[in-house]
Structure prediction request, 276 residues.
Amino acid sequence: MKELSYWEAIASSRLQVQRSHDWVQELHEERREYVAVVDYHKGNLSSVRRGLVEAGAYVRVVDDPKLIEGAIGVVVPGVGSFEDAMAYMRSSGQDAAILAAIAKGVPYLGICLGMQLLFEEGNESSDGRSIKGLGILPGPVRKLESGRLKVPHMGWNQLDVEPLGEDCALLRGVGAGENYYFTHSYAVPSSPGASYQMAVTHYASSFASVVARDNVYGCQFHPEKSSNAGAQILRNFVDLVNVRADALRGADVGKEASGVDTLLRAFVNRAKHEEA
Prediction:
Protein backbone atom coordinates (compact mmCIF):
# COMPACT_ATOMS: atom_id res chain seq x y z
CA MET A 1 0.00 0.00 0.00
CA LYS A 2 2.84 2.39 0.88
CA GLU A 3 4.58 1.56 -2.39
CA LEU A 4 1.43 2.35 -4.38
CA SER A 5 1.02 5.63 -2.50
CA TYR A 6 4.65 6.54 -3.30
CA TRP A 7 4.24 5.93 -7.04
CA GLU A 8 0.94 7.75 -7.07
CA ALA A 9 2.69 10.75 -5.53
CA ILE A 10 5.41 10.60 -8.22
CA ALA A 11 2.80 10.40 -10.98
CA SER A 12 0.87 13.26 -9.45
CA SER A 13 4.02 15.38 -9.21
CA ARG A 14 4.91 14.77 -12.86
CA LEU A 15 1.38 15.61 -13.91
CA GLN A 16 1.56 18.88 -12.01
CA VAL A 17 4.86 19.78 -13.69
CA GLN A 18 3.40 19.02 -17.13
CA ARG A 19 0.30 21.05 -16.35
CA SER A 20 2.55 23.92 -15.26
CA HIS A 21 4.39 23.88 -18.61
CA ASP A 22 1.09 23.65 -20.49
CA TRP A 23 -0.30 26.53 -18.44
CA VAL A 24 2.67 28.75 -19.34
CA GLN A 25 2.19 28.04 -23.04
CA GLU A 26 -1.56 28.57 -22.79
CA LEU A 27 -0.94 31.83 -20.96
CA HIS A 28 1.22 33.11 -23.81
CA GLU A 29 -1.41 32.10 -26.35
CA GLU A 30 -4.32 33.44 -24.32
CA ARG A 31 -2.71 36.79 -23.61
CA ARG A 32 -0.86 36.81 -26.91
CA GLU A 33 1.98 38.61 -25.21
CA TYR A 34 4.93 38.47 -27.55
CA VAL A 35 7.81 40.59 -28.76
CA ALA A 36 7.48 41.02 -32.52
CA VAL A 37 10.64 40.84 -34.61
CA VAL A 38 9.60 42.59 -37.80
CA ASP A 39 10.35 40.64 -40.96
CA TYR A 40 10.56 42.91 -43.99
CA HIS A 41 11.94 40.06 -46.10
CA LYS A 42 15.51 41.30 -46.44
CA GLY A 43 17.60 38.86 -44.43
CA ASN A 44 18.03 36.21 -41.76
CA LEU A 45 16.55 37.18 -38.40
CA SER A 46 17.50 34.06 -36.43
CA SER A 47 20.32 35.65 -34.42
CA VAL A 48 18.09 38.54 -33.28
CA ARG A 49 15.32 36.13 -32.34
CA ARG A 50 17.73 33.89 -30.44
CA GLY A 51 19.25 36.82 -28.56
CA LEU A 52 15.83 38.03 -27.42
CA VAL A 53 14.75 34.53 -26.37
CA GLU A 54 17.93 34.18 -24.31
CA ALA A 55 17.10 37.56 -22.75
CA GLY A 56 13.79 36.12 -21.58
CA ALA A 57 11.34 37.23 -24.27
CA TYR A 58 8.57 35.23 -25.91
CA VAL A 59 9.30 36.07 -29.57
CA ARG A 60 7.40 35.88 -32.82
CA VAL A 61 8.92 36.79 -36.19
CA VAL A 62 6.09 38.53 -38.02
CA ASP A 63 5.38 40.45 -41.21
CA ASP A 64 1.64 41.00 -40.68
CA PRO A 65 0.92 44.63 -39.66
CA LYS A 66 -1.83 43.45 -37.28
CA LEU A 67 0.64 41.23 -35.43
CA ILE A 68 3.14 44.09 -35.24
CA GLU A 69 0.57 46.43 -33.74
CA GLY A 70 -0.63 43.73 -31.32
CA ALA A 71 2.80 43.01 -29.84
CA ILE A 72 3.97 44.07 -26.39
CA GLY A 73 7.38 44.94 -27.82
CA VAL A 74 8.60 45.64 -31.37
CA VAL A 75 12.11 44.98 -32.66
CA VAL A 76 13.20 46.05 -36.14
CA PRO A 77 16.49 44.35 -37.01
CA GLY A 78 19.31 45.61 -39.16
CA VAL A 79 19.20 43.94 -42.56
CA GLY A 80 18.93 45.37 -46.08
CA SER A 81 19.03 48.96 -47.26
CA PHE A 82 17.11 52.04 -46.16
CA GLU A 83 15.38 52.31 -49.54
CA ASP A 84 14.33 48.64 -49.77
CA ALA A 85 13.19 48.45 -46.15
CA MET A 86 11.02 51.55 -46.35
CA ALA A 87 9.58 50.50 -49.72
CA TYR A 88 8.45 47.16 -48.33
CA MET A 89 7.17 48.67 -45.09
CA ARG A 90 5.07 51.24 -46.94
CA SER A 91 3.65 48.76 -49.46
CA SER A 92 2.79 46.24 -46.73
CA GLY A 93 1.46 48.66 -44.12
CA GLN A 94 4.20 47.77 -41.64
CA ASP A 95 5.20 51.42 -41.28
CA ALA A 96 1.72 52.44 -40.11
CA ALA A 97 1.58 49.48 -37.72
CA ILE A 98 4.94 50.38 -36.19
CA LEU A 99 3.90 54.01 -35.74
CA ALA A 100 0.59 52.91 -34.18
CA ALA A 101 2.38 50.59 -31.76
CA ILE A 102 4.82 53.32 -30.75
CA ALA A 103 1.94 55.78 -30.27
CA LYS A 104 0.33 53.31 -27.84
CA GLY A 105 3.52 53.21 -25.77
CA VAL A 106 4.80 49.85 -26.99
CA PRO A 107 8.60 49.67 -26.50
CA TYR A 108 10.48 49.73 -29.80
CA LEU A 109 14.08 48.66 -30.39
CA GLY A 110 15.73 49.41 -33.72
CA ILE A 111 18.98 47.60 -34.49
CA CYS A 112 21.43 49.05 -37.03
CA LEU A 113 19.15 49.85 -40.01
CA GLY A 114 16.19 49.50 -37.63
CA MET A 115 17.57 52.48 -35.73
CA GLN A 116 18.23 54.49 -38.89
CA LEU A 117 14.65 54.03 -40.08
CA LEU A 118 13.48 56.03 -37.04
CA PHE A 119 14.87 59.21 -38.61
CA GLU A 120 13.33 61.57 -41.12
CA GLU A 121 15.31 60.51 -44.15
CA GLY A 122 18.24 58.50 -45.46
CA ASN A 123 20.18 58.63 -48.73
CA GLU A 124 20.96 54.91 -48.98
CA SER A 125 19.22 54.50 -52.32
CA SER A 126 19.95 53.24 -55.81
CA ASP A 127 20.32 56.78 -57.19
CA GLY A 128 21.49 58.62 -54.08
CA ARG A 129 18.23 60.47 -53.53
CA SER A 130 16.81 60.88 -50.05
CA ILE A 131 14.19 58.39 -48.90
CA LYS A 132 11.69 59.30 -46.19
CA GLY A 133 11.99 57.30 -42.98
CA LEU A 134 9.51 56.79 -40.16
CA GLY A 135 10.17 60.33 -38.91
CA ILE A 136 10.06 59.51 -35.20
CA LEU A 137 13.37 61.29 -34.63
CA PRO A 138 14.66 64.41 -36.39
CA GLY A 139 17.56 64.44 -38.79
CA PRO A 140 19.07 62.48 -41.68
CA VAL A 141 21.04 59.27 -42.14
CA ARG A 142 24.16 59.77 -44.25
CA LYS A 143 26.94 57.64 -45.70
CA LEU A 144 30.17 57.38 -43.74
CA GLU A 145 32.90 59.16 -45.69
CA SER A 146 36.59 58.52 -45.12
CA GLY A 147 39.75 58.74 -47.18
CA ARG A 148 41.74 56.84 -44.57
CA LEU A 149 39.48 54.26 -42.93
CA LYS A 150 37.65 51.46 -44.68
CA VAL A 151 33.94 51.79 -45.24
CA PRO A 152 31.83 49.87 -44.34
CA HIS A 153 32.69 50.15 -40.68
CA MET A 154 32.99 46.49 -39.67
CA GLY A 155 34.23 45.19 -36.35
CA TRP A 156 34.39 46.10 -32.68
CA ASN A 157 34.15 49.62 -31.35
CA GLN A 158 33.14 51.42 -28.17
CA LEU A 159 30.44 53.79 -27.02
CA ASP A 160 31.06 57.27 -25.72
CA VAL A 161 28.04 57.68 -23.44
CA GLU A 162 26.56 61.18 -23.34
CA PRO A 163 25.43 62.74 -20.03
CA LEU A 164 21.81 62.01 -21.00
CA GLY A 165 22.75 58.40 -21.65
CA GLU A 166 23.89 57.81 -18.07
CA ASP A 167 20.25 57.41 -17.05
CA CYS A 168 19.13 55.61 -20.20
CA ALA A 169 17.27 52.38 -19.34
CA LEU A 170 18.72 50.61 -22.39
CA LEU A 171 22.26 51.17 -21.09
CA ARG A 172 21.61 50.09 -17.50
CA GLY A 173 24.37 47.84 -16.17
CA VAL A 174 26.62 48.39 -19.18
CA GLY A 175 30.21 49.08 -18.18
CA ALA A 176 32.54 51.68 -19.62
CA GLY A 177 35.00 50.42 -22.21
CA GLU A 178 32.77 47.62 -23.48
CA ASN A 179 33.08 46.71 -27.15
CA TYR A 180 30.16 46.25 -29.53
CA TYR A 181 29.97 44.80 -33.02
CA PHE A 182 29.28 47.22 -35.88
CA THR A 183 28.74 46.59 -39.58
CA HIS A 184 27.38 49.55 -41.56
CA SER A 185 28.15 52.11 -44.23
CA TYR A 186 25.53 54.67 -43.19
CA ALA A 187 24.98 56.40 -39.87
CA VAL A 188 23.22 59.24 -38.09
CA PRO A 189 25.72 62.13 -37.78
CA SER A 190 26.39 63.10 -34.20
CA SER A 191 24.29 66.00 -33.00
CA PRO A 192 25.82 67.19 -29.70
CA GLY A 193 23.17 68.08 -27.16
CA ALA A 194 20.34 66.37 -29.06
CA SER A 195 17.74 65.09 -26.63
CA TYR A 196 17.63 61.66 -28.29
CA GLN A 197 21.39 61.02 -28.48
CA MET A 198 22.45 58.72 -25.64
CA ALA A 199 25.87 57.62 -26.95
CA VAL A 200 28.19 58.28 -29.86
CA THR A 201 30.90 56.26 -31.58
CA HIS A 202 33.87 57.55 -33.55
CA TYR A 203 34.84 56.04 -36.90
CA ALA A 204 35.55 58.20 -39.94
CA SER A 205 33.32 60.71 -38.15
CA SER A 206 31.28 60.81 -34.96
CA PHE A 207 27.82 59.24 -35.21
CA ALA A 208 24.95 58.42 -32.87
CA SER A 209 25.31 54.82 -31.70
CA VAL A 210 22.49 54.73 -29.11
CA VAL A 211 19.32 56.82 -29.32
CA ALA A 212 16.24 56.97 -27.11
CA ARG A 213 13.07 58.98 -26.73
CA ASP A 214 10.19 57.89 -24.52
CA ASN A 215 9.46 54.24 -25.45
CA VAL A 216 11.66 54.30 -28.57
CA TYR A 217 15.23 52.95 -28.52
CA GLY A 218 17.84 52.29 -31.15
CA CYS A 219 21.43 51.12 -31.41
CA GLN A 220 23.68 51.30 -34.46
CA PHE A 221 25.61 48.20 -33.41
CA HIS A 222 24.31 44.63 -33.29
CA PRO A 223 23.63 43.66 -29.67
CA GLU A 224 22.82 40.09 -30.71
CA LYS A 225 26.44 39.78 -31.95
CA SER A 226 28.10 41.78 -29.16
CA SER A 227 28.79 39.11 -26.55
CA ASN A 228 27.93 39.83 -22.90
CA ALA A 229 27.61 43.59 -23.32
CA GLY A 230 25.11 43.15 -26.14
CA ALA A 231 23.19 40.52 -24.18
CA GLN A 232 22.80 43.07 -21.37
CA ILE A 233 21.32 45.56 -23.84
CA LEU A 234 18.75 42.98 -24.94
CA ARG A 235 17.93 42.06 -21.33
CA ASN A 236 17.36 45.73 -20.57
CA PHE A 237 14.95 46.03 -23.47
CA VAL A 238 13.05 42.88 -22.45
CA ASP A 239 12.84 44.29 -18.91
CA LEU A 240 11.27 47.47 -20.32
CA VAL A 241 8.75 45.38 -22.25
CA ASN A 242 7.88 43.29 -19.19
CA VAL A 243 7.47 46.31 -16.90
CA ARG A 244 4.94 47.84 -19.29
CA ALA A 245 3.16 44.51 -19.81
CA ASP A 246 2.91 43.98 -16.05
CA ALA A 247 1.49 47.46 -15.59
CA LEU A 248 -1.14 46.89 -18.30
CA ARG A 249 -1.96 43.47 -16.88
CA GLY A 250 -2.42 44.99 -13.44
CA ALA A 251 -4.75 47.60 -14.88
CA ASP A 252 -6.77 44.86 -16.61
CA VAL A 253 -6.98 42.86 -13.38
CA GLY A 254 -8.16 45.98 -11.59
CA LYS A 255 -10.89 46.48 -14.20
CA GLU A 256 -11.94 42.83 -13.87
CA ALA A 257 -11.99 43.06 -10.08
CA SER A 258 -14.03 46.25 -10.27
CA GLY A 259 -16.48 44.51 -12.56
CA VAL A 260 -16.78 41.54 -10.21
CA ASP A 261 -17.34 43.87 -7.26
CA THR A 262 -20.10 45.65 -9.17
CA LEU A 263 -21.82 42.37 -10.00
CA LEU A 264 -21.45 41.13 -6.43
CA ARG A 265 -22.98 44.33 -5.02
CA ALA A 266 -25.86 44.07 -7.49
CA PHE A 267 -26.44 40.44 -6.46
CA VAL A 268 -26.42 41.29 -2.75
CA ASN A 269 -28.76 44.26 -3.26
CA ARG A 270 -31.14 42.08 -5.27
CA ALA A 271 -31.10 39.38 -2.59
CA LYS A 272 -31.90 41.96 0.09
CA HIS A 273 -34.72 43.33 -2.00
CA GLU A 274 -36.21 39.86 -2.51
CA GLU A 275 -35.99 39.13 1.22
CA ALA A 276 -37.81 42.37 1.99
Summary: The first helix runs from residue 2 to 31. The chain has seven helices and 14 strands. The domain at 33-275 is CATH 3.40.50.880 (Rossmann fold). The mean pLDDT is 87.
